[in-house]
Amino acid sequence: MAEISVLTPAFAAQRRLPSSIARILDQDFEDWEMLIVSDDGVDYQSILAREGIADPRLRFLQTAVRGSGPNVARNLALHAARGRFIAPLDPDDLCDPRRLGCLRALAADHGMAGDNLHVIDEAGSRPGHLVFPLDPPLHFLTIDDLYGIPVPLSFVFHRSLVAGGWDEDMGPGSDILFTLRAMERVERAVIYSEPMHEYRFRPGSIGHGFDTTEGAETAYRCCLQRLREGDLGFRSHRFREAVARLLWHKRRLNRAYRRAIHQGFSGSFLHFLGLWENHA
């Protein structure tokens, strides 16, 4: 049984997945398995073999219905995972070789642990920058700290915190709900201040354009409705209210981005957010 299960959904990931897996193969901590779930019918094992990438710790699964979505793929991987710790990883994420071992040790003490990350604009119009300062070496986050963080954070979780999995019908809202349910259990999430993870955004990505704002608006509306119905797995009324306030804040930003696109703005959400905060 592996200590850490890395869960990666794959859809049209032929170009980026090999680099992501190569970084996992280079990890200093070797007691891991990686579950790669094809959601597009592609035989990723054969593609990787042609790239010279093969390892018995790589496990390959496929969703029953092509295009089921990343949350269905992640839940399939979670159900099959054998690790004590769960590490969701997107197919284009690039990790430092120390990442799994470092975050596994912190998650063993705190329940869940994330790391600082480089935010990199692949279009080249903004240099990479860090989400958190390098000092102090550890940051402890509550739900209120998430208001000022515009990019998705990536964590390693103790398996007991995430047994419920992802909400398969929530689309882009599921990741934050998954993380928030774990945060409710631990109260504070620990972040290692050294960056061991790259978050890349680019034109045409999920965080860029009008279609994204429409999908996000639908997700926020659905999340808030289900919160009112008490249907998202949060244990306390107080925390559920805090989640609602956070989602309303993010919905407000999304609507402001949508208005900016209507007025001719052509940048990503992260570009917009920098401009919006400077003039708010």
TrEMBL record:
Domain Glycosyltransferase 2-like: 5-121
Keyword line: Transferase
Entry superkingdom: Bacteria
GO MF, one annotated term: transferase activity
UniProt cross-references to Pfam families, sorted A to Z: Glycos_transf_2 (PF00535)
TM region(s), chain numbering: none
Keyword match Hydrolase: no
Protein name: Glycosyltransferase family 2 protein
